[in-house]
């Protein structure tokens, strides 16, 4: 195998882990529960639903809170996107790991 192929295989094997790490980073940046508690809005758990965030974005007049909640919602959506990418990229990597010895 050429060196380029070996590098591409290494990158493909590490891609689900990379997507997962990026997703975790975006989840850590999503501090919506902290934003609610800082503004004296009680929440049941540390995971605040997206619907509740949207409801408070529309219902609040505080521009600073509204901007922070919008940012938290974007981080939540990015977290979901990268988790989906991690799950989607995992089966091709597993299949490739079994097929590479037969191709080489």
Would you write up a description of this structure?
- There is one protein chain.
- The protein has 104 residues and is mostly helical.
- The chain has one domain.
- The protein is built from four helices and no strands.
- It has helices spanning 3-29, 32-38, 50-59, 63-103.
Question: Descriptors for this entry?
Answer:
single chain, about 100 residues, mainly alpha, 4 helices, about 80% helix, transmembrane, membrane, transmembrane helix
Whole-number tally of structural domains: 1
Total strands: the figure is 0
**3D shape:** rod-shaped
Please summarize the sheet with the most strands: none
Specify the helix fraction band. Answer: over 70%
The topology string of helices and strands comes to HHHH
Distance between the termini: 7 Å
Keywords: Membrane, Transmembrane, Transmembrane helix
Transmembrane segments: 7-29, 81-103
Task: Summarize the SSE layout with pairings.
Blueprint: H1 3-29, H2 32-38, H3 50-59, H4 63-103
Short description:
Keywords: Membrane, Transmembrane, Transmembrane helix. By secondary structure, the chain is mainly alpha-helical.
